[in-house]
Amino acid sequence: xxxxxxxxxxxxxxxxxxxxxxxxxxxxxxxxxxxxxxxxxxxxxxxxxxxxxxxxxxxxxxxxxxxxxxxxxxxxxxxxxxxxxxxxxxxxxxxxxxxxxxxxxxxxxxxxxxxxxxxxxxxxxxxxxxxxxxxxxxxxxxxxxxxxxxxxxxxxxxxxxxxxxxxxxxxxxxxxxxxxxxxxxxxxxxxxxxxxxxxx
Length: 200
Fold this sequence. Notes:
Layout: H1 2-18, H2 22-37, H3 41-47, H4 50-68, H5 71-81, H6 87-105, H7 107-123, H8 129-142, H9 151-162, H10 169-196
Helix pairs in contact: 1-2, 4-9, 5-7, 6-7, 6-8, 6-10, 7-8, 8-10
């Protein structure tokens, strides 16, 4: 089983070289693991977190709709327009906007929407190093604010419920929101120092 795991991780690192998409790598790894272990089908079906799968199906339908009507593009373009006000201001705003949006619509789709914007800014000659860090910090910490902010949060809720110790949304927010605000504040301060001293 460790061989399958190592091969899957290796393919993730080499997917650009062998021209195999990350999604296909995941499917190949899962198929190889199932063939290797051959678990009983009934046990396999019972162990699937169906609520998580249905949630993500619904989430990506909603996010696809938001992207289709241009909501995510509006947010991305608004952040891009700040580039004229200085790289530090843009980075700090991007960090906090990323955190807020990631807490609402999941951090993966927002990151996917912002990547082309940052690449376009780099093509215009704008220094985007601090912006990449701001995006990473914002979506990473922002996803902790709500249970739907990240894939890990959704899986955690489902696992906790199946384990007999459910976590309510209110309990999550009571811990997640202050932790997110504090971590984003620290991230903003460190990012400002890094920009000031030319470290990013």
